[in-house]
Amino acid sequence: MGVVLLVAVIAAAAVWLFPILTVKSFEVVGNDHVAAEDVEQASGVAKGSNLARLDAREAARGVASIPWVESATVSRAFPSTVHIEVTEHEAVAFVRNGGTTVLVDNHGKEFVEDEAPPEAVELTGSTDSGSPEMQAAVEAVAALPAPIREKVTTLEIKDRYSLTFHTEDEKTIFWGASEDNKNKAIAFEDVLKLEGESWNISNPSLVTRR
Question: Where does the record place the POTRA domain (predicted)?
Fold first, then answer.
């Protein structure tokens, strides 16, 4: 028994001290907007390095430094693979700042300057970063499913109680305050199917034409 234990200890020490199990490949999942090569590079893990000595926490911290990445986990997949799981920010909105486009996630965080994806809604009006008006607007936008957001051109923010959507088919839909958003989102989808250019869904149980 003692000999077996000694052999196991020696084997474990050898794996730790010498590059017996080396990194030969990466497996990156969850990345839609970030290239796998950029994730690998940001991890700081080099091919040929000792897999047993991988600092998974430090590698995950490096990946999470990529602007598009909200969080990341890194793990060993023996005998030779580094597994990296990425959770990206969900870009629900964007604001134009001079000649740049700043993306905003579903938590109201402005996280990167990049081209807006089709499901992101442009915010106009009172768009001061971190303001109550911005937070209210993001909550309203995030209540809409991504395919519905693609039908929206802009969300005009007058104040936190006055949010107005403009759609690609030239509908104007007054949302009002950021409250009862789940039911307003249902009303929003219904209104898209109706004739008429101007609608008020601030009370989703009593939708009216304006």
Answer: 21-89
Residues 6+ apart with CB under 8 A from 193: none
Which amino acid, 198?
A: S
Residue 151 lies in a domain: yes
Domain boundary among the residues 69, 88, 107 is at 88
Same domain, 199 and 141: yes
Computed over its alpha carbons, how large is the radius of gyration of the chain? 24
